[in-house]
Amino acid sequence: MLPNRDLVEVTPSEKHQEVVDYKINPKAKYSDGHKVVCDDFQLTKLASERADLFASDLPIYHQVAELYCAPGADRFRVVFKPGFGQRYRELFSAGTVLPAHSVTKRAEVESVTAATESGVEEDLARLGKAWQELFDITKTDPASVPTFGPYRIAEKGEQGQLVLRENPEWAGDSPAQVPIYVWGPGADLPKLAEDHQISVLDAPVKTDFAAAGIASEKFSISRQPSDRLDTLSLADTGIFADEGARHAFSACIDRKALVKTVSEFSRNRVTATGLRVVPPSAPTHPRLRALSGAHMNRDIPAAKGALEGATVRIGYLKEHERYAKQVESIKNSCAEAGITVEAVPLSAANYGTLGEDYDALLSTLSGFGRNGLSKANQASLLPELLRAEKELQQAMWTIPLTTEPRAIATLKNVDNVVDNPGNVGLSWNMDRWVELDHIPETTSPTDTPTKKS
């Protein structure tokens, strides 16, 4: 989220809401010593425009008309489309700005500006491929990839773990804990616990912590659901090009059955919602509860009248067993309307394309940086939120389902671990984590009772 003065200073125009100026911190450098320049931000804008080449999903940039950047400059300007600009802070969020000098080198392209201005499809395709592969640790040595922030990736271990050490080019506050070892999905949790290698764990939701050797007397354990939502994103081609078809498909989904399925699977009390901007935990949510309920109305006759005999393909990452169970639940409920739902399991290496390989994609989304048609975010005034939720419901490009279940364990002597409701999750303040020789007096925000379904 900008402004982040270690990276860039942001100045919205006082006269024109649509105009925002950016000045990059002269001390901002990647871990390889290259300065952060406006080309890095221009690359993000290009990626948002060519999702077909970059496999990107950056809907907030639909509100941006132009980004003006001279190659290598430390200043640039963003101009929003008329009437937009209120959500400028949601541009260029964590993980969306990549080092353009590394991407262009890998793509063998002169510069982002040159590729954008020439429009040569081959150059753009190579940029898109490089954008996708640069941080793919199965295709790139992560220690060779420059990073921005307090940490750099020092090495990839023999068992796939990443070792994070201090970034010598970082001009901000030094990280409190060095090194940090990061283990990905599929790690042997009981073995890591036995070897005392777990300090902070963002676990698969159905994890049995006791069986994994993660004892409650040593760890703070939380199963609080997050503000992110398990959501269906619908293609703008094929069966869902028609607005009526999108509404009909939403009407066949049994939300109560979904909540039961996810809660039982995850040992976590999730909540169904029909809202896209306002999460269930927001202070304004109670005042929109009736609208949320109306958006989730199940209407089998309407669904049957519009889509009986149709087939809807739902893609999802097969590593997430929860998604498979949700698709099965949707399949069963929509069968009552004569709609056939086909599951399309995907892998990160072969994610396919929405609108070609599947008609809808099930994933977990934060409202931050999304809902590109809307001028409102959850901090907006109630009338603006009401208008935005109604407009997004009418367009129906997404179907919100339930809150995301979570399972988190933190050693009680590790301080400053705070879960984030957005896409960055636990890692957002990793540089402030610190392992103490005692249990701090203050209770960690992750130290909440385990909920049983």
Features:
about 450 residues, alpha+beta, Dipeptide-binding Protein, domain 1, D-Maltodextrin-Binding Protein, domain 2, Dipeptide-binding Protein, domain 3, five-stranded mixed β-sheet, 12 helices, disordered C terminus, Peptide ABC transporter, peptide transmembrane transporter activity, SBP_5_dom, SBP_5
Could you characterize the architecture of this molecule?
The protein is an alpha+beta fold and 453 residues long. It has 3 domains: 136 residues, Alpha-Beta Complex (Dipeptide-binding Protein, domain 1); 104 residues, 3-Layer(aba) Sandwich (D-Maltodextrin-Binding Protein, domain 2); 181 residues, Roll (Dipeptide-binding Protein, domain 3), CATH 3.10.105. It is built from 12 helices and 17 strands. The strands form 5 sheets. The protein has a 5-stranded mixed sheet. Helix 3 packs across helix 5. GO terms for molecular function: peptide transmembrane transporter activity. This is Peptide ABC transporter. It holds the Pfam family SBP_bac_5. InterPro entries: SBP_5, SBP_5_dom.
Ordered list of secondary-structure elements with their pairings:
Layout: E1 8-12, E2 19-24, H1 38-49, H2 51-54, E3 64-69, E4 75-80, H3 100-107, H4 112-118, H5 121-133, E5 151-156, E6 162-166, E7 180-182, H6 189-194, E8 200-202, E9 219-222, E10 229-234, H7 243-252, H8 255-266, H9 289-295, H10 300-307, E11 311-317, H11 321-335, E12 340-346, E13 360-365, H12 382-395, E14 398-403, E15 408-411, E16 414-415, E17 434-435
Parallel strand pairs: 11-12, 11-13
Antiparallel strand pairs: 1-2, 2-4, 3-4, 5-6, 6-7, 8-15, 9-15, 10-13, 10-14, 16-17
Helix pairs in contact: 3-5, 7-10, 8-11
